[in-house]
């Protein structure tokens, strides 16, 4: 096999594995083997840029930045759907259409996936365009972002038409959503409220590498095009599956409205077992000839009807409102309910979000409340059954002191949440911070778990994370359920954490809004904790992707004497608070003071590597061309508007090779 054949064969193989894993949920090789093959392909592609393919499986990781999404008109309008809410609505609809078409009418029943609609265009089996619905006539070009979604085929298989569009919904399955939220909470950020908004928000992220990290899926339901080789909606779903699309298997052909109702009744109950959110059923006339006869109204097809499930709702008694204190001191009010079954699970607690929400609903302890499970994972209280309210009940007074340490709470102008400002003395904050410090993505201290941290704090052995480094096995052994061996493991684990690189230490410090990615950016830019401590807000915001909110949080963290003392102590114990000599060896000041904009696709290094090279050599990467830009590094397919802008501003445009020469790469 020559190189080109090798590359082609690896691409085909990886595509197939991708398909098995993400579309069929049935992988046939291990993740490790997959990664090895991917690495092999990456190396070959890097060594042989002449075989570049914009749809190669190696490009799933993203890296393209879109500042302004281009508006593109839809070749075929994206209609909305009419809604129905009852059996009677559907019967009326059936009668209306029966009069308008010849012959017997059959239906395809599909689930109505709750996400962001998307239209994908394929030319000769390759994905060429992904556009959001927008207003139905035109939408945003989000191709770069959609390409990172693993269940979207970049290259089709089988007997596909040479040109067509396919429509579907981009969803964020519950499991991934929950995981993303756990990570956000870990970084001290507000969790996302629901999967649907998070999915549509993801499509508009500027950095496609960020989109690639989100566990999005694309579920398809409709083929659009001229003279497609299909006769029915059901057949189009089957065909799309064969070409490599993820088309959920729940869809059914119904020979009568009775069968449609059976489908609806079944899924009204069982939809909670699905891995993603649905908000109804879409019933479509199956025969495409009949669809054509029926046509469209001003805003929707006459041949389709959505049936909306009622959001499940129950009423129950609210026994008590309690308040939780998070690691960052944020207070969350929680409704403790009389246990009740809702959407297949037993619910005992519901979120009340914040003080405004409590006031808006006027909920009180002892009230009978309506609880709903909509898009949100955590059920929410949507109202009070005032007919059942005790006439003597008193309106809820939001707490003014921390339930854990009695410090008066504060609430910053414009923020919904109350905070306990006693960062140094409030037990859940103390424990939470240390738990975060030792967590897997931070210091990853083996042998030490969250409960042990609480035990150590409650026994007065530690009060902040620096204290960990003074712990001795003899102090730990006397604690509950501790033995010589486990105590030694803890001490050894703590010792080993002194090798953890600076970027993870920085994440572990628990600065609000400084999650894993931000910590990496800051580390790369400032290199040492001292440089970061001395950075002003104005300086911080010049770092790629660091906004005002993060900058403020960093500055205020280092403004605290206590934090500075803790950091001095960590330093004295040998914790890594600057990047290591090895990492530093690859870094120079060659590009110091120069601002770069990177545009297009590169062949010798990936876009991300290119940016890293700029930063490692002292340059700055900016996302938009301005008069301050010194160089635009232009790859293939650099946008014409960028080029014009650079030319007008007199900014030097250099090629990838010219850039690599600058740094003697
Ligand atoms: P609505 O936004 O309520 O007008 O509902 C129409 C939207 O439902 C469409 O734009 C699609 O994004 C979405 N949808 C979800 N599942 C389906 C499906 N199986 N068939 C058609 N549309 C669907
Ligand atoms: Zn407190």
Automatic annotation (TrEMBL):
Zn(2+) binds at residues 402, 405, 420, 426. NAD(+) binds at residues 31-35, 80-81, 110, 133, 169, 284, 308. Its EC number is 6.5.1.2. HAMAP family: DNA_ligase_A. It catalyses: NAD(+) + (deoxyribonucleotide)n-3'-hydroxyl + 5'-phospho-(deoxyribonucleotide)m = (deoxyribonucleotide)n+m + AMP + beta-nicotinamide D-nucleotide. GO terms for cellular component: cytosol. Keywords: DNA damage, DNA repair, DNA replication, Ligase, Magnesium, Manganese, Metal-binding, NAD, Zinc. It comes from Aequorivita xiaoshiensis. This is DNA ligase. One of its GO terms (biological process) is DNA repair. Pfam families: BRCT, DNA_ligase_aden, DNA_ligase_ZBD, HHH_2, Nlig-Ia, OB_DNA_ligase. GO terms for molecular function: DNA ligase (NAD+) activity; metal ion binding. Belongs to the NAD-dependent DNA ligase family. LigA subfamily. Its cofactor is Mg(2+); Mn(2+). The lineage of its organism: Bacteria, Pseudomonadati, Bacteroidota, Flavobacteriia, Flavobacteriales. Residues 586-665 form the BRCT domain. DNA ligase that catalyzes the formation of phosphodiester linkages between 5'-phosphoryl and 3'-hydroxyl groups in double-stranded DNA using NAD as a coenzyme and as the energy source for the reaction. It is essential for DNA replication and repair of damaged DNA.
């Amino acid at each position: 096999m020559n190189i080109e054949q090798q590359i082609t064969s690896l691409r085909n193989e990886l595509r197939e594995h991708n398909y098995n894993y993400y579309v069929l949920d049935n992988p046939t090789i291990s993740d490790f083997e997959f990664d090895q093959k991917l690495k092999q392909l990456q190396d070959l592609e890097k060594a042989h840029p002449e075989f570049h393919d914009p749809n190669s499986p190696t490009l799933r990781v993203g890296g393209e930045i879109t500042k302004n999404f281009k508006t593109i008109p839809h070749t075929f309008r994206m209609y909305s759907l009419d809604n129905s809410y009852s059996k009677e609505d559907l019967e009326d609809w059936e009668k209306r259409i029966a009069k308008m078409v010849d012959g017997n009418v059959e239906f395809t029943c599909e689930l109505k996936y709750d996400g962001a609609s998307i239209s994908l265009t394929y030319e000769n089996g390759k994905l060429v365009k992904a556009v959001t619905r927008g207003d139905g006539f035109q939408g945003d070009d989000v191709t770069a972002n959609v390409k990172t979604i693993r269940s979207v085929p970049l290259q089709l298989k089988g007997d596909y038409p040479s040109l067509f569009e396919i429509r579907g919904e981009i969803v964020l399955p519950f499991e991934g959503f929950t995981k993303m939220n756990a990570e956000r909470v870990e970084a001290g950020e507000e969790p996302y409220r629901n999967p649907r908004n998070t999915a549509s928000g993801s499509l508009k992220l500027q950095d496609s590498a960020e989109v690639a990290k989100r566990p999005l899926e694309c579920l398809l339901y409709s083929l659009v095009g001229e003279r497609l080789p299909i006769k029915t909606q059901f057949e189009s779903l089957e065909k799309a599956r064969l070409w490599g699309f993820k088309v959920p298997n729940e869809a059914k052909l119904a020979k009568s409205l009775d069968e449609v109702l059976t489908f609806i009744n079944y899924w009204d109950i069982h939809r909670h077992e699905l891995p993603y959110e649905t908000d109804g059923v879409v019933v479509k006339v199956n025969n495409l000839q009949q669809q054509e006869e029926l046509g469209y109204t001003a805003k929707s097809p006459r041949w389709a009807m959505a049936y909306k499930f009622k959001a499940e709702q129950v009423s129950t008694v609210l026994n008590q409102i309690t308040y939780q204190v998070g690691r960052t001191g944020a207070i969350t009010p929680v409704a403790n309910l009389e246990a009740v079954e809702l959407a297949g699970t037993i619910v005992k607690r519901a979120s009340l979000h914040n003080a405004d929400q409590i006031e808006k609903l006027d909920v009180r302890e002892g009230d009978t409340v309506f609880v709903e499970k909509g898009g949100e994972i955590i059920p929410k209280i949507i109202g009070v059954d005032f007919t059942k309210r005790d006439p003597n009940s008193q309106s809820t007074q939001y707490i003014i002191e921390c339930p854990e340490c009695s410090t008066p709470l504060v609430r910053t102008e414009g923020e919904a949440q109350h905070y306990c400002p006693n960062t140094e003395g409030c037990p859940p904050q103390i424990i939470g911070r240390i738990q975060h410090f030792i967590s897997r993505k931070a210091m990853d201290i083996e042998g030490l778990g969250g409960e042990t941290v609480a035990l150590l704090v409650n026994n007065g052995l530690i009060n902040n994370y620096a204290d960990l480094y003074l712990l001795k096995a003899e102090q730990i052994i006397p604690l509950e359920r501790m033995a010589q061996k486990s105590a030694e493991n803890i001490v050894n684990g703590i010792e080993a954490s002194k090798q953890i690189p600076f970027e993870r230490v920085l994440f572990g410090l628990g600065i609000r809004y400084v999650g894993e990615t931000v910590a990496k950016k800051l580390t790369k830019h400032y290199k040492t904790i001292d440089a970061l401590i001395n950075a002003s807000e104005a300086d911080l915001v010049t770092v790629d992707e660091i906004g005002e909110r993060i900058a403020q949080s960093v500055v205020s963290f280092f403004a605290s004497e206590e934090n500075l003392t803790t950091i001095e102590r960590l330093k004295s114990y040998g914790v890594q608070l600057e990047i290591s000599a090895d990492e530093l060896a690859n870094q120079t000041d060659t590009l110091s003071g120069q601002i770069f904009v990177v545009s297009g696709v590169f062949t010798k290094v990936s876009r991300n590597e290119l940016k890293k090279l700029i930063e490692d050599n002292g340059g700055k990467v900016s996302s938009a061309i301005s008069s301050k830009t010194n160089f635009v590094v232009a790859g293939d397919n650099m946008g014409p508007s960028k080029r014009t802008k650079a030319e007008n501003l007199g900014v030097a445009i250099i090629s990838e090779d010219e850039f690599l020469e600058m740094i003697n790469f």
